[in-house]
Amino acid sequence: MRKRLNGGFTPNKMKDMFGIINESVDTLVEYLSEREGAGVDSRELFTRLNCNVILNTMFGIECNCLKEPPHKLFSMGNEINDYSSWKFVRIFATTISMTLTKLLDINLVRGELFVHFMQAIKGSLRERERNKTFRGDMVDFMLDNKGETDDEPSAKKINLNEDEKAMQLFGFFIGGYDAISALLAYSSYELAVNPDIQRRLREEVEGVTHLTYESLMNMKYLDMVVSEVLRKWPIAVFIDRKCMEQFVIQPEHANEAELILEPGILCWIPIYAIHRDPKYYPEPEKFDPERFSEKNKHQINRSVYFPFGAGPRTCIASKFSVYVCKLVLVRILQEYQIVECEGTVPPSDVSKIVIFLSGSGSKVAFKRKN
């Protein structure tokens, strides 16, 4: 099933969504024009924008969460993606024991929230089937009756009922909602405090006369910048994986013993710590897109760069998240400079009980280009 669902995020499918995403970004450009020069909470700003993008591309629901009051699904999405201490305990319990989870009746999403979301998603599915319209979004993908995807002909169709289709769309929402807004918040902060990097990126943006999916994907320095943001601020702080066969970790120092991992052991992999280990990344606290240049990127061991996780269970919407981030950054830099202001501080540091970096607490301002 996962291979089939991956077909929703192939280059052709994302190209189909280019216009839909661009329409959502139009609301951001309009919003910024009304608040030029004023400091804004970057996480709040991009969470509202991302709600527009996700609801539009995933469910076919057109809204403008940058206006007050925002769509009711915006508040629901915020609650679902609230990684507070108690939410972490619930997530942690599901990774330790499903028996414990069932015994304590632990749910990651409140029942009434889940019901409201499922009703909204099913409503979109039914309306699309009834009207026989095509938008090129994820609703169309879930309703697609072709046996194979255009990009992956080996990915055979899996017949899903309405509940299963709605559940998959709900999963896409969870996967993309927090990732995109966090990535944009970190990107805006780094560009604000590194004006020379922003200047070089703007030069690349201004060199593109007609913005299309293809021209966006061909912007090399943009890719370097976003890759470095993901290195310094990975979306997942750590991931958990179950050991499937015995593995021995050899000692690195004389006073250490070998560590034997037996099948069935749950391993927690600290992505954030690995991405900031000077053994792999010299001057890890420095924001340096040149790490990912054509000249230097071969020096990066790909096994120590996995901002969205790794393996078969890596984030299914990772390419979509990066795609949206790139498009939003280009649209902003076409008209604005991202600058520091009162309240521009490093994004909230990692606490000992967090799975995802919050990216909250930092403000930036947007000034019209000279």
Main sheet strand line-up: 1-7-6
Helix content: 40-55%
Kindly state the number of beta strands.
7
Q: What is the CA-CA span between the terminal residues?
A: 50 Å
Shape descriptor reads globular
Mean pLDDT: 82
Q: Domains counted in the coordinates: how many? A: 1
> What is the highest CATH level, the class?
Mainly Alpha
The main sheet comes to:
3 strands, antiparallel
Proportion in β-strands = 5-15%
Just name the CATH architecture: Orthogonal Bundle
* CATH homologous superfamily assignment: Cytochrome P450
Provide key terms for this protein.
370 residues; endoplasmic reticulum; 3-stranded antiparallel β-sheet; two-stranded antiparallel sheet; 7 strands; 15 helices; microsome
Structure described in brief:
By secondary structure, the chain is mainly alpha-helical.
